[in-house]
Design a protein that fits this description.
The protein is an all-alpha fold. It has helices at residues 10-31, 34-41, 45-51, 55-78, 84-101, 103-114, 118-145, 155-174, 176-185, 194-209. Helix 1 (10-31) packs antiparallel against helix 2, helix 4 runs parallel beside helix 7 and helix 5 (84-101) packs parallel to helix 8. The longest helix has 28 residues, at 118-145. 24% of the residues are buried.
């Protein structure tokens, strides 16, 4: 983004981000319209181009804004009291809550995954994924040092596998296709059984990540 964008009011920036997220999420990058974003944000098209070099600049800035919001939430969990199990459980609760309250942001992630424009997608992947990759890897390394998580697996690989599970839950709570898929696999009332989802997922992760010979469920 251009320096001028950082000098406008927070309220105005948030209006532009909200309009941008909605447009990119619903229409994809290629079909997103700057004129629509400007109109929905209550600013002129000329103003958008004063704040951003082009549509790609606006898209990547929007993605970074969403990523920083996620980073703030995750850092709060990592700094909280408790061990690996309690923090992972907290992340699952956040995924459920955040995906429901910010469906359009998750839909934006889904559109990014389907995007074929490498020049747009690859920088966005770096912005989005590096944050959670680092935090989850650090969490697992700490658990390995405490002999809570198996030490015969690479922490980065375990972080990748764990995040894939979290990502699928994000889509399952926010995107219509994945919501219906969740119902088909488990039950029609699955979205009314949040405790069940968290408990079953924790049992799976504890069993998969537990060191050989250790009984899952002992770590708080």
């Amino acid at each position: 983004m251009k320096e001028l964008f950082g000098r406008i009011s927070e309220e105005k920036r948030n209006r532009i981000f909200e309009a941008s997220v909605n447009e990119f999420a619903h229409n994809g990058y290629e079909h997103a319209n700057i004129n629509v974003i400007a109109a929905n944000a209550g600013v002129s098209v000329g103003s958008i181009y004063k704040y951003f070099e082009n549509k790609q600049d606006l898209f990547l800035t929007t993605v970074k804004h969403c990523a920083l919001g996620l980073k703030s939430i995750l850092e709060g969990v990592m700094q909280s009291a408790g061990g690996w199990k309690s923090r992972v459980r907290a992340i699952l609760r956040i995924v459920q809550k955040h995906s429901r309250e910010h469906r359009v942001v998750i839909q934006l992630y889904s559109e990014m995954a389907a995007q074929c424009n490498a020049g747009v997608v690859l920088p966005a992947v770096e912005e989005m994924e590096s944050i959670s990759a680092e935090l989850y890897s650090d969490l697992i390394r700490q658990a390995q040092r405490e002999h809570i998580v198996r030490e015969d697996c690479d922490p980065k690989m375990l972080a990748f596998l764990m995040d894939n599970l979290f990502m699928m839950f994000q889509f399952s709570y926010a995107c219509d296709y994945y919501r219906e898929r969740f119902k088909v696999y488990v039950d029609r009332d699955i979205f009314e059984r949040d405790d069940f989802v968290v408990d079953q997922t924790m049992r799976f992760l504890e069993s998969a990540f537990a060191p050989t010979g250790r009984t899952p469920g002992r770590e708080p």
